[in-house]
User: Fold these one by one.
Assistant:
Number 1:
Amino acid sequence: MDSRSYVFFFGLSSLTLIALAYDPDTLQDLCVADRTSGIKVNGFTCKPESNMTASDFFFAGIGKPAVVNNTVGSAVTGANVEKIAGLNTLGVSLARIDYAPGGLNPPHTHPRATEVIFVLEGELDVGFITTANKLFAKTVKKGEVFSATGNSIYGRHTFHGVSADSRSRFNYGISNRDERDRKDKI
C-alpha cells in the first residue's frame, strides 16, 4: 500500500469516529406528546402540529405546596411529559419536593440523568454515593444549590427540625419510565 492509501484510510477512519461521537439534536422542533395514542415508542408519539396549543407547554402544579401525609415525610410533584406534553423528547423535567420536619426523600437513582437541587425554604442534608463508593454530602440552605451525578445513589433529609421545599431539575435521559422504575429501587 502506498502512502496515499494510508492517508485516505486514516482520513476515512477519522471521519467515521467523528460521526460515531456525534450527539444528535432532536429530529424536529416540536414533538408534543399524544398521550392518547396506543402506539408505544421511546417517549410518546407526536400530536399533529395543528392540534398543539399553549396548554401543551404549561403546568401550574409546581407552585403549590403538596400535602405531606406519608411515612417518609416528603411529597414529590413532578413536571414531566406526563404533566407537560410539550416536554416530550426534550430530555428535561422538573420536580418540587416538599418535606415535613424530619422528612426524607429515600435513596434513589436516576439512570443517565444528573440532578440539580435548589433549596427554596429550610435546610436539607443532601448527598450522593458514587459507583466507587465515595460519599459526597452537604447541608444545603435556602437559596443554595447542590448537584448529583447520574447513576449515583442519592437522597435528601431534613434533620434540622424544620420543613423544607426544594426544586430538582433533571437533564438528558430521565423519562417517565425512569420515574416509575425509581419507586422499585427505594
Number 2:
Amino acid sequence: MVGFAADAECWKGTAQGNFTVKSAYVIRCGPTVPDDARMANQPKDWDLLFGSICWNLWLERNAVVFDNPLEDRGWFQANADAGCRLADGSAKCGGVIRNHDGRWVQGVAKFIGICSVLEAELWGAFTIIHVAWGLGITRIVIELDCLEAVRMIKLASLPPGSPTILFHLRELLSRPWCVEVFHIDREKNRLAHELAKLASGPSLCPIYFFYPPVPNYYSDYAITIG
C-alpha cells in the first residue's frame, strides 16, 4: 500500500516549492526573462514587486522571531517615555530596545487614549517590556524618566486603587526572566520621547520600528551599555 503525505501549500515556480523572485518572473515572462525586468521597473509588474517585498519582509520578521539572534548576547537596554496633551488629555507612549553595544533592536510607539500622566508612563513601560518579552530577551534594563512610575513598579504590594495597567505590568515582570528598572534624567531619555511623538490615534495598535525612524540616530542617540 502506498502512503501519501498530508497536503501542503507550496510555490509552483520552483522544484523545492519555495518562492523566488526569479521564478515569479519566469511564470510571468516565460523561460527567457528580459534584462529590463530584473528590477520590476515596468508598471505592469507592480504585483511582482509587491509580492517580493512582502516575502522578504516576512523572511526577515521570521528570522527575528524564530532564529533567536538575541540569544547569549548579554544584557539589553530599553527606554520608555510618554506624554499627555493638556487640551484633551489624550496620551502617547514610545520606547526603544538596544543591544549590548547600543545598536537598535526594535522601537515602538502607541496611542493610549485619555488617561493620567502617571498611567501613560506606566503604559510606556508595559509596552516596551512586552516587546522585549516577545523578542525572547532574557536580561534587560528598563530606564524611565518618571520617578513615581519607577517607585510604583518596585512596590512590594500594590495599594487599593492602583492603575489597572500596573497589575498587567507586574505580571509581565514576574515571568521567568531578569528585568531591572531604573530612573534616569529626562535628557538621557530623548530617544524614547521622540518615538512617542510618532504615535497617532485613534487606533490603539502599536507601531513597530525595526529600523531607527529618527534622523542621526547613531550620532545623536546611540549609547554603549556597560
